[in-house]
Amino acid sequence: MGLFAPTRQETVEDQRLYLDGRLREIACLDCLAKVKVKKNSEHHTAVQWTDVALGHCQEFARLSGQPGGRPVYETCSRLMASIDRAVAEGELEVGAQDGY
């Protein structure tokens, strides 16, 4: 699969908004792993993990040690509680804006 390298400024900006728009860095209140989060709705949360953050997450480490490893659809309940706190305190906005 080839890489998409936009050349028009409008397309570059659309790509930036799609990939990074409204992402906020949130730290887990337990292990301090820092991830980027976007909350499009009450039920939809996008989380971008880094290798460093994955290395900090104790819950993922525990799940990875199970036979068959960590199910990819499993989330970290402690991080989700941290995200919920960020929403409650107004640190993280809920709802897509302009399609992002």
Task: Describe the overall structure.
Helices cover 37% and strands 14% of the residues. It contains four helices and three strands. The protein has a three-stranded antiparallel sheet with strand order 1-2-3, with helices on one face. Strand 1 (24-27) and strand 2 form a beta hairpin. The chain starts with 8 loop residues before the first helix and ends in a 12-residue tail after the last helix. 14% of the residues are buried.
Question: Can you summarize this structure?
Answer:
By secondary structure, this protein is α+β, with helices and mostly antiparallel strands.
Key terms for this structure?
3 strands; alpha+beta; three-stranded antiparallel β-sheet; single chain; globular; 100 residues
Structural class: alpha+beta
Rg from Cα: 16 Å
Q: What can be said about the biggest beta sheet?
A: 3 strands, antiparallel
From N to C, what is the helix and strand string? HEEEHHH
Quote the beta fraction: 5-15%
The beta-strand count equals 3
Tally of helical runs: 4
Shape: globular
Which sequence of strands runs across the widest sheet? 1-2-3
Q: Can you give the helix content as a percent range? A: 25-40%
What is the distance, rounded to the nearest whole angstrom, between the alpha carbons of the first and last residues? 25 Å
Q: State the low-pLDDT regions, or none.
A: none
Mean pLDDT: 85
